[in-house]
Amino acid sequence: MAAPRIRFERISKSFGVHQVVKDLTLDIERGEFVSLLGPSGSGKTTLLMMLAGFENPTVGGIFLDGRRIDHLPPHRREMGVVFQNYALFPHMSIADNIAFPLRMRGVGRSEIDERVKRALDMVQLSAMSSRRPAQLSGGQQQRVALARSLVFEPAVVLMDEPLGALDKQLREQMQLDIRALHKRLELTVVFVTHDQSEALTMSDRIAIFNHGNIEQIGSPRDIYDRPQTRVVAEFIGETNLIEGTVKVTGTAGTSVEIADGRHVMVPGNSSLSVGSRVHISVRPERISLAAGGIGAAANALPAKILDSVYQGDHLRVQLDEDAFRFVVRTDMRSAEWPIGAEVVAHFTPDDCWVIAA
Amino acid sequence: MSAFRRRTGTFALILPLTLFLGVFFIWPLLTVLEQAVSDPVVSKNLPRTTAAISAWNLNSEPTDEMRRALVDDLKSLDDDQKLGEVVRRLNSAQPGFRTLMRKTVAAVRDSTGPVSLAEIDARWNDVAFWRAIAEATYPYTDRNLLAAVDLQHDASGAIVAMPAGESANQAILLRTFAVAAVVTLATCLIGLPYAMLAAASSGWRRQLLLAAVLLPLWTSLLVRTAAWYVLLQDKGLINSLLVSLGLLNTPLPLLFNRTGVVIAMTHVLLPFMVLPIYSVLIAIPRNLMPAAASLGARPIRGFLHILLPLALRGIASGGLLVFMAALGYYITPALIGGPKDQMISSVIAFYATGSANWGMAGALGMVLLAVTIVLYGVYGRLSMKTTGA
């Protein structure tokens, strides 16, 4: 089997006594779009900087196509980096900015012109080639930075929160543009972000960072629907967590006792043993509200409505302590509940996801 | 109404500055300039001659009217000091006037009746002497300005170079520019890496580096120069260290020569190079050099293609500051340099305080000012070009 495009092998990085990356191992395949997602200070940017060559790992090795590269200086790593604030050269025209990596590689004049022209076409900025970066909008600058990082056909493209400075609409457009480029050019992309919807939109795989290591890595669906830890469940999307103890296990279903002796039915799971502590995660959009008369098969929690907020495409309803202050997203077509109304929050066992505590 | 009020309000705000500049800068400057070109001695003290000679064509036989007017003027000029000024002025244009005038004045003062100048001295028949008087009667002259760059009028009025060995202003001006250029280059070579280091470091290290540059600025120039005087001596710190380390057998001559002047001036002027470069460097986004590296630029090429072009504005304004300040340096070359290292300001000082020749001092000052203005214009053009979109 061929070596992965990038391999991080047992990487640790310390700044003084502070360890920001702890014994991390990660493979990234050719053509894959991997997002590093996590709160600030979780080590994701440091990992990217080590890949680009701006930081050296304290321990461990970084491999590109099986070749060790962590001793190489940045200019010999063949990584296209898109920086947070684009890092365009202010004294050069757009065309010169994009030509820069080619000039550094001693590419001939006519070939440079040709490739710069193609790169400008790719990001639809051909009309701007003679302008200076300061004369462009944020979105245009971001596209120039992208073109500059791609024009020399690097082995990997690294992006450090490249869309952070753009407004929401432009950001969403750029997300789709970058994703389309990734597919068309079969790029290997490592993308650092703290915006979960960005990661969900763009990635083949998402690595959730926490305290210097990867908490979980998987497809967006894995991460969202099957979080392995409480941190992941809470970080990706909004969720309701209930703590409980496993009472009955079985292939048909598992019963978990929660506070004040009530039970919640969750899907059958052979890995759970009776008496173990678990968290049950229920996404807000999986919960329904009813006035009463729910069948016995469903999990039902009677509660009062504390608050109800109009969000355009849905209502965000907050329940009181009887239902563990659950948050519920209700469809706009369903009934609108007044604050203080008595309701029953109900969800099926399949709406629950169990995380070992 | 409100626009008018607003405008007068603005003027009122800048009035103190305008007054200050007018009284303490522009007026003295104009006075000095006037000194450089004014030549009132003869026209003021020999008014009748001045009037009579204005009709003369400079070539024909001097008229009787001119002769009579001169005798009358000399008769009524009883202030010996003023007479001395007139004689000095005329003698500087035409050698021989000193003895001629002494003889003539004595004869004129002794006689009671009409006096014939030609009988007193045959030289009064020489047109050249009359021509010197005629030229000296103009209240303005370009003699000082020409002399400032080693030029003069010959007998026919054409501008020619002064005889070799008579004046060294051109050589001293050239030396002044050479020293200023070398000092500018040296401050740039030291100041650019230093400013880069200061801009790249942070926290107490940056504070320390900047303080090391700023501290000398807060010390008197005289004290700093005196300190270099001590350091650069044959038995000074530098030479004794080099000798005791065995690197040298005899001490390097560092004092009273060009090397010492350049070393001391470079140190004194270094802050004016470091600070503009530093202020430009810290404004450069931090991720540009990593970006250049990630795009394949070796550090040296990143420096040449990115950092240096962006720092150029700071280098240019620092260079201009240093060069212009160096042009006017006086104390440092005077104390550290030898006689062959004196710069134009010491010549100005000589004329102003040593020989009371305000005209020459003003003329040299004007030449220096003109060169500085031209340089500033060139800098303005260049910086427009580099910053213009």
UniProtKB/TrEMBL annotation, chain B:
<dbReference type="GO" id="GO:0055085">
    <property type="term" value="P:transmembrane transport"/>
</dbReference>
<dbReference type="InterPro" id="IPR000515">
    <property type="entry name" value="MetI-like"/>
</dbReference>
<keyword id="KW-0813">Transport</keyword>
<keyword id="KW-1133">Transmembrane helix</keyword>
<keyword id="KW-0812">Transmembrane</keyword>
<feature type="transmembrane region" description="Helical">
    <location>
        <begin position="306"/>
        <end position="331"/>
    </location>
</feature>
<comment type="similarity">
    <text>Belongs to the binding-protein-dependent transport system permease family. CysTW subfamily.</text>
</comment>
<feature type="transmembrane region" description="Helical">
    <location>
        <begin position="358"/>
        <end position="379"/>
    </location>
</feature>
<protein>
    <submittedName>
        <fullName>ABC transporter permease</fullName>
    </submittedName>
</protein>
<feature type="transmembrane region" description="Helical">
    <location>
        <begin position="261"/>
        <end position="285"/>
    </location>
</feature>
<dbReference type="GO" id="GO:0005886">
    <property type="term" value="C:plasma membrane"/>
</dbReference>
<feature type="domain" description="ABC transmembrane type-1">
    <location>
        <begin position="173"/>
        <end position="379"/>
    </location>
</feature>
<dbReference type="InterPro" id="IPR035906">
    <property type="entry name" value="MetI-like_sf"/>
</dbReference>
<feature type="transmembrane region" description="Helical">
    <location>
        <begin position="172"/>
        <end position="196"/>
    </location>
</feature>
<feature type="transmembrane region" description="Helical">
    <location>
        <begin position="208"/>
        <end position="231"/>
    </location>
</feature>
<feature type="transmembrane region" description="Helical">
    <location>
        <begin position="12"/>
        <end position="30"/>
    </location>
</feature>
<dbReference type="Pfam" id="PF00528">
    <property type="entry name" value="BPD_transp_1"/>
</dbReference>
<keyword id="KW-0472">Membrane</keyword>
<keyword id="KW-1003">Cell membrane</keyword>
